[in-house]
Each structure stands twice: as C-alpha cells, then as structure tokens.
Design a protein that fits this description.
The complex is a heterodimer of chains A (445) and B (212). Chain A is α+β, with helices and mostly antiparallel strands. Helix content of chain A is 46%, strand content 14%. Chain A contains 18 helices and twelve strands. In chain A, the strands form five sheets. Chain A has a three-stranded antiparallel beta sheet. In chain A, α6 packs antiparallel against α7, α7 runs antiparallel to α12 and α13 packs across α14. Chain A is globular, with a radius of gyration of 25 Å. Chain B is of the alpha+beta class and 212 residues long. In chain B, 17% of the residues lie in helices and 23% in strands. Chain B contains four helices and ten strands. In chain B, strands 1, 2, 3, 4, 5 and 6 form a six-stranded mixed beta sheet that branches. Chain B has a two-stranded parallel ribbon with strand order 7-8. Chain B has a two-stranded antiparallel ribbon with strand order 9-10. Chain B is elongated, with a radius of gyration of 20 Å. Chain B starts with 39 loop residues before the first helix and ends in a 10-residue tail after the last strand. The chains are: A alpha+beta (445), B alpha+beta (212). The interface between A and B is large, with 49 and 46 residues.
Chain lengths: 445, 212
Amino acid sequence: MTLHDAYASATETTEGRVYSVTGGDWDSLVTEIGQTKEERVVVNMGPQHPSTHGVLRLILELEGETITEARAGIGYLHTGIEKNTEYRTWTQGVTFVTRMDYLAPIFNETAYCLGVEKLLGITNDIPERASQIRVLMMELNRISSHMVALGTGALELGALSPMIFAFREREKVLDVFEMVSGLRMNMAYVRPGGVAQDLPKGAVAKIRETVKELRHNFKDNEKLLVGNTIWMMRTKGIGYLDLAGCTTLGITGPVLRSAGMPWDLRKTDPYCGYEDYDFDVITTDTCDVYGRFLIRMQELEQSLRIIEQACDKLDKTEGQPVMVADKKIAWPSQLSVGSDGMGNSLEHIREIMGTSMESLIHHFKLVTEGFRVPAGQVYAAVESPRGETGVHLVSDGGTRPYRVHFREPSFNNLQATSAMAEGGMIADVIGAVASIDPVMGGVDR
Amino acid sequence: MSENIGMFGASGSGDTSGFGGLVRSAANFGSSERPYGSYFDEVADELERAYPEFSDAIEKVIVDRGELTLHIKREKLFETAMKLRDTESLRFEVCLGVNGVHYPEDKDRELHAVYPLLSMTHNRRIRLEVSVPDSDPHLPSLVEVWAGNNWHERETWDMFGIIFDGHPGLTRILMPDDWPGHPQRKDYPLGGIPIEYKGATVPAPSERRSYR
C-alpha cells in the first residue's frame, strides 16, 4: 500500500525506514508502520516550546517514555555580541555585555568591568562606595534572577501559583533597578572605573523597605512548594548529577552546590569587597532538582542579608565618589535630572560649553574615542546566579577590545542536560533543564 | 608589525564608529623570569617534577597582572593537561572552557587557543595557551580530560576554525550548519553578509559602493 500523506512521509535511510511526523492523520501512520518490529521514536522538542526556557531545542530519543539519548541544540539566539564589542570602545562594551544573560545583567557588567579594571591596573583604585553599590545591585539581581528560575521552573512542572508570587517579587526588585539606574533590565549601570551614577536620594531607605517586604513575601512560595508532596515527587531524585560529574563538566553555581560542594566565588575568590560581608554558602547533598530548588530558596535570604549590610555601609559612605579618580579613565560628567529628563549635569555643560575648551576636548575625546587599555590579557570571574561568569579580555593597547569572550555558566551547564536526562522519563527532562536554569541569551551570546 | 585597517578602507579620518581607521596590531610578550611570585613558582615546580618532559613542552611562561600563562606546544598539550589534572599537588580538576584569539600578524602562530584552568582543591587558577598556524589549524581535543570542553571546542571551531582532533562530534554550535567562514576571525568583517529583504538583496556594509 502506498500512502500519500504529506505530513507522515516515509524515507529510506541507512538506518532503515524513517517516518517524519509533523501533524496529519495518526491512523494512516499507524497503518503504514504496521508490524515493524523495531520502534525507535525521536522527539524534537523546541526550539519554540513553552517549557524549554527560551529558544532551546532538545532532541530526545525515546524507548517508550524513557529517554535513551538527549541532545541539546543551541544557537537560535546567537547575536554576535563578542564580535560587536571589538568595534566599540571599552566603555560601550558594557551596553553589549549586559544583554547576554538578560536575567543577570549586573553580573555580566560587573565581570566585564572587573576585567577591564584588571587590564588597566586600577582594581585597587575603585572607590569603596562604587564596590558597595555593585554588591547591592548584584544581590538584588540575584533575587530577581532566582525568582524567574523558581517561577518558571514551577510553571513548567505544572505549578502555576508560584510563578505569580515570584514575578510579583521580581517586579519589586525591578522597581529598585529603575529607581537607581533608570532602567529595569539591561541597565549598563556598572562602568569601567565604578558605576554610572550615585544612588538617588531616598534609595537606601526604599531598598530597606523592599527587603522587609521581600522577606515577608518569600514565605508565600515557601509555603506552596517546600515539603509539597506533588512538588517533591516531581523533583526529588530527578536530574541527578554528582560531584564527579559536575567537575568534569565544569559545572558551577547552584547545580555544583547541590552536589555538596560549598564552592562560591564570593567566598573562595572575593571581589568587590565580598570578604567584608557576612553570609553563608548554601549546599545540599541530594544532587537533584529538589536540592537545587532548596538552594535557590535559601540563597534569597542570604542575598537579603548582604543587601542589608550593603545598605549600612552605604549610609557611611554617603557623598563619596562612585567613579575612579583618574580623569583619563573616569567618565567626564555625572548624570543628573534636568527639565527634559536625565542628561549631563548642568554644571558640566556650563564648564565644557562656557568656560573651558580643554574640558570640552577632554570630554569629546574620552566619549568618542575612549581610553586606551595597556596590551595584555586577563580573566575575571564573578559568582552569578547560574555559576561562574568569567570574562576573558585581550587588549592590543587600543581604545577598543581586541577580544572579549564570556565564559557563560548557562552555556557550560546546559551540557549537563544529557547526563541528567538520559535514563529518566520524558516528563522529567523539563525539571532537569529548569534546574540548570539556562538563559538562552547567555548560552548563545 | 603590520597594520590592519578598518573594514571600509578609510584611513586617517576622525571617524570613531569603529569602522574607519581601525588599526590593529598583535601584542607580543617576552617570557617572564623566576621567581614568578604568588603560588606560581610552586605550580611550575610541581609540574616539572610530575612531568619530566615539561621543559620540552613549554614555549614560554608569562606572569602578567597576577595571572600565570603557560604557553604549551600543541604536540604536548594533551599530556600536560593530563598531568595538571591528575597530579595531586596540582589537581586542576576544572577547565573553564577554551577560547580562541586570532592574531593575523603573528606569523605561523595566527590562531591561539586559551584554556583557563581552576583547581578547586587548592583554589588556584592558571591559564594554558597554545598557538597553531592558520595553514594547519589542528589541536588535540581535551574532551577526554575535561568532558565539559565539548561545547567550548565546538564553539572555537565554529568561530575560529581551529580543528580539535579526537573531538567526539566537532560540528558548528552557534552558527547554522551550512555557514561559510568563521565569524570571530579578524579577517571576517562585522556584518559581512548580504541582507535579503522583500526579494531584493542588499550587499554587506563592507561591499557597498558608497563606502569605497
């Protein structure tokens, strides 16, 4: 019998007869397959599948409902950010890298800026207040990122309410970002030498209030999920990856800590003054999705602790500079609000337009051409919500990067999909991927 | 050292968009002298002890900005990596991937591969750097040493055209499978592909007449 179904056409391959099913009549397919002895089903999940965390494609080979082989296809969101930065100044690079892992923009910016500062040799000249603001923003960002991880992770496993609570909390953090930087995402707020502008009046008070609210509201999701029988059945023992697997695959972040390893760059290799903050590194030894979920839940509280300490420190450094003192590197003007919105401060405009031609030249050269960075290469890393965000920078001594490479934890950790999913059920692959918490903007860059 | 001018062929202009007057030249560092400082001397000593042929494998050692870079000959890369991972006093159990850098002016060493290594046991970091000529861009794959290098090596192949011999499946990872060229190389222009829109083809920016 010959069959003419455009949706279920069979092709002869070296491995035998292959039927592609993309719709159409199931009955006609079943009739044609007939009595074939061997049956192997390959399911293509994504790249436009609601529960694959963005444009991720999973190619799953099944035997019944058990996965025998899982592969991840990526590259659907590749934007060439690394290449683009080579054609812009070192400062403009911040605007690019903030868009990589779009759920953790502050971490991309900080890693990049720490790298540039290391190349410039000004790591120790960064004002205290700038580092404190960076820590404050990073920990707020960790909360907003973990909120998305928890919310979407639960949503993908069929628990809808946690998502609503998680996004409610995330919104509060984004409000703070908006107040501090003017933008809710992709802020380009951390700059080589410091931060773009000081905290606005009343920001610390507002953040303290937000911390109180968040601490109270986090209980909602805790009550919904921690110890919830259905949630535990979907997550316990799922997506198993032990310490040996983590190290050989270069896994960092909550996945590594779920294997019992207390590895956190904020403790092991502190930057931005993290050694002066009191907080705990959360671990579990379950190596599974539930363990990673618990780690993220408890890291929220640790982040709140750090934010509170940062607020106390910021009270003491009120009015101090937030940009390096070296005029050859520091952005020439500080932003301020005028009658038509945010822009260069009036004093600065007055100086460059009315009194000092040298200031105008200085401003023009620094903004258009940028500063020169001595030749060499460095690697700088921060602990992002997903693990080690490392940046490898190469300078040829010019005003633009010679090479910018991001070692994205999402990209690296996504390789664990096969190890976590193979041998498990098809429904559990969703939980495993969600526990890696990949952000495709970071994976593909 | 030769100069590489920006993509539109403009020279000496005040254009700061990055496209005109973009001068690039490769930086070349000399080897550092002992003592290296920090834990770097200890790492070098231990590696020499564990790997007698080390002096044969090493091209140069560079200590710069508090980071140690070991330039390794590509024939010895695999052995060096194994020693670095398995020797107890070194124990670099994590490789944070591999990253390519293209230096078109560095004759017969055009393509560099850079491996940042991390030892969680000793909380130490070092960097391996290997160079290969553009005409023979082959490197041994380190997937057997650190499985996590799989995707990183695929990315470096995709972006720079470095071939990692022994890789279980060296295919493109970020660009489409049929993509011509390796976009991160310096001789590959930014946005260097024609744009197809509404049936018409707009040439790549670098090919447009008005810029010539």
